[in-house]
């Protein structure tokens, strides 16, 4: 048994004790609930006190912050709502009772009316020294309180772990209900799911533009795969690649102006670079092998990773966009596909074939060691959070497509439970402003 | 240039369609009540609905749909990890090739399909190989490229949803669809 499998086994035992179901009260039918399994190597004990006046909000802030932090597996969230009085400011803060509960830091704050909106102030305090570690302040309307809560969670996460958070982000995925397909967008915690496209034909491979304002995806509405772009604000759609044959596997360049796509118009499946607005002629990138697909850009935009059968089995290659040969980068296992680099470029996530089947894995780019992270065998479409810490992917649970997430160290696992349908093809979007 | 102009026109038509009231969402989605705040506009996505409206009707190619005619046979099955048309399908491929050679205005779309093992996009490329294998055989029988288009559905349109050898075998196939025929 590998160390990761041992961790997972331990984590599953822990699940019975620690599983938390984070329901979103009053949410739409399509919302997902997230079940968490396992914890990080380090857990930060943090007390969260209800913010002053937050109970008067239709969406109180601190429960959302607490759920975000708990779900990451890296925080032990300690309640402080029963303190008398509940501290709202550093001046009112008394560390002793929270220290007794094991808290090292405490999140306190206020929500004050400010014209037609509110001023939200959050302070992270060191329990021992009463020193302010970080202060967050933002003016927000009542309808923006969830967004503000995710931002506060990101600020706390970054201050305590030293890595950026990714709570204030969205995910896109495809839901199949009977013969109906929907492309949906939801907050990263599964809340607020909305359909942005409904079709009677399959939809696949949604990908976020780097600015988070557009999606590229493959739609079969014309009885063949065509790559579309869609503006999420206006709903405007346009064809990015609609050539003879199949058009698939879109991947945005980091500057959002171009995409890599797979076209079969010249024979075989080959990777081309096209303009994001669909203008101009595609520029062909690959010439070797019958299959070259699943392109993704390296974070610097200089190269693409892709899956190719040129060596006889599907493996991942890297090729400069500006010209130059392809370099094979996966050598372990006979099937490696759907490769994407973490934002820091140090870790590759991919689907690898093991004796268990098709599993989400990571490969350390320095050692080239591939390590499977899941215990399922029909995984697909791994997608990094913007901070590279979590990987969201598609799996099969009880014969139904479902989303799950795993930390890139394999220790924390989440299952996103949907009330209906097959949920597939996730894409994790960039951090929202 | 002609292709670009056509695709620009299509884009314009699509854009026009997308703004018509008929394409509004069929079901209420989660309300984001506040639209005046400082969130980016994109956090309140607009919705497009393609499920309304009729699919194209068949134009009535009788000889193609007559169950007693081999031309009504439209499925070619493949072995696991194989992209070769098996001899048992030669008669069907030859009949369709003959039909295409005798009807130069007819166009055939060959749709490749796979079983559900492996990633969706890699399977799309594998399905394409199956469609291309059928096309290659038809080309050898004299069918012009202009009458053929090969596309793939990958693992997106399985005939069977079970995870059994039998279901997988049924899903590894190419489907022949004449231009203008109704979608299945």
Automatic annotation (TrEMBL), chain A:
GO terms for cellular component: periplasmic space. Keywords: Cell cycle, Cell division, Periplasm, Signal. GO terms for biological process: cell division; protein import. Residues 1-30 form the signal peptide. Residues 33-131 form the TolB N-terminal domain. InterPro entries: 6-blade_b-propeller_TolB-like (IPR011042), Tol-Pal_TolB (IPR014167), TolB_N (IPR007195), WD40 (IPR011659). Part of the Tol-Pal system, which plays a role in outer membrane invagination during cell division and is important for maintaining outer membrane integrity. HAMAP family: TolB (MF_00671). This is Tol-Pal system protein TolB. The lineage of its organism: Bacteria, Pseudomonadati, Pseudomonadota, Betaproteobacteria, Neisseriales.
From TrEMBL, chain B:
The Tol-Pal system is composed of five core proteins: the inner membrane proteins TolA, TolQ and TolR, the periplasmic protein TolB and the outer membrane protein Pal. They form a network linking the inner and outer membranes and the peptidoglycan layer. It comes from the Bacteria. Residues 32-57 have a biased composition (Polar residues). Its main location: membrane. GO terms for cellular component: cell outer membrane. This is Peptidoglycan-associated lipoprotein. Belongs to the Pal lipoprotein family. Residues 19-31 have a biased composition (Low complexity). It is found in: Cell outer membrane. Residues 19-57 are annotated as: Disordered. Keywords: Cell cycle, Cell division, Cell outer membrane, Lipoprotein, Membrane, Palmitate, Signal. The keyword Transport does not apply. It holds the Pfam family OmpA. Residues 65-182 form the OmpA-like domain. HAMAP family: Pal. It is a lipid-anchor. Residues 1-18 form the signal peptide. The keyword S-adenosyl-L-methionine does not apply. NCBIfam families: Pal_lipo (TIGR02802). Part of the Tol-Pal system, which plays a role in outer membrane invagination during cell division and is important for maintaining outer membrane integrity. One of its GO terms (biological process) is cell division.
